[in-house]
Every structure is written in C-alpha cells, then in structure tokens.
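Recall that a protein's primary structure is simply its ordered list of amino acids. Everything else, from secondary elements to tertiary packing, is in principle encoded there. The following example makes that idea concrete.
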Amino acid sequence: MADTNVKIRRWGADWQQLKAEQAFVEASFPVELDHDVALQKLLELQKIRDDFHKRTHQPEPPKWE
C-alpha cells in the first residue's frame, strides 16, 4: 500500500511539473499568426509531453519469484 502511495505522490509531482512547464512555454511564445512561431511552440510542448511520458511510464522491473 505504501508503495502505491509513493507512486501516486511522484506522479502528482510530475503532473504539476508538466503543467508548470506548459504554462512557461505558453507564456514564452507570443500569440501571433506567424506559422514558424506556432510550430516552434508546438514542438516545445510536444517535447515536454514526451519527457513527462518518459518519467511516468517506465517499464515495470521484472518480478522475481
């Protein structure tokens, strides 16, 4: 049970970090109709999401019997 609670707290901290990074990227790029700026913003957001996925979706270690 304690192991599950630790995983939930870690995931919550990672989720808060993801939201903070997304807010930072949203604030860094101005709202424009320039396609290059919009593409750069989308690439930054995708990189942040990929990093979050790598942190939270790790393969389970092998179970020893």
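The mean pLDDT is 80. DSSP finds two helices and no strands in the chain.
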